[in-house]
Structures
1.
Amino acid sequence: MIASVHGTVLRAGLDQVVVEVGGVGLLVHTTPATAAALRSGQQARLATSLVVREDSLTLYGFADDDERSVFETVQTVSGVGPRLALAMLAVHPPDALRAAVGSGDVLTLTKVPGIGRKGAERLVLELRDKIGVVGAGGAAVAAGQPATAAWQGQVQEALVGLGWSTKQADDAVAAVAGTQPAADTPVAALLKAALQVLGR
């Protein structure tokens, strides 16, 4: 188990980063908020969870141990794998997930792509006694590469990768574009705005 990585950020994308540890560049899948808080060249420490499959080793990274704990706990529910668990954290921070599960807020949980009403009810039933109580979590600060003319395609691709349909992603990008974002708005911030549109 790789519990954490600490090193220089070689590349920060919309939902993944490459961290150099001991001369080796490790590809780490993250939430958009975590990726947005990192910049190339800076030192970073990420709590991590290694998912081992027959044909792959995939490393998932988180801003703190609490986020990793929630990621691993939600996967104890039948039908929830690492991609869906990461999508849950991309839409809702740990405390929001705890609050939704604790209060049985099925509607909030179904805002995550890939989770329907029955899936949300199963999450509430199986996680209510496991996921803990709402704590004092911190929000990641949005920062990232400057937006370019290609930001719409980048955001659309990231949303589809997180599980939304192409049409949902296109509609969210169109909604964000309609707000006339500033030319220097980071792509990660635009992705976060699109996630907020989809979460309504």
Note: The beta strands are 4-12, 16-21, 24-29, 43-53, 56-62.
2.
Amino acid sequence: MTNYRDLDIYKISFNLFLRTHPFSLKLPKYELYELGSQLRRSSDSVITNIVEGYGRRSYKNDFIKFLVYSEASSLETINHLEKILALYAELCKEAEELVKEYNLLGGKIHSFTEYVRSSWRS
């Protein structure tokens, strides 16, 4: 691994962000700056925390802390998508697929965090 771009969790989260951002723009105009903005920010936070944590990888505990933040942001993103599922039936198919993929990503982030916790050399 030469940089954060080599991490599967980064690649997956970046791809999901690129799908989540335009999805959020399908919300009604009055939601674009409320729920839409929250969804975009939490989705971006998943990636950003992976990158920032990797930048602090020399400090194992900092790396772990930012990976935990990333997993939490993934859960937050799922929560926003669940609100969309409850409110906007016309967006359900795409939102359900994103929820499924963020759930898988959260598991991968958690597994990677446990790997760092047990095996990472700072």
Note: The first helix runs from residue 8 to 24.
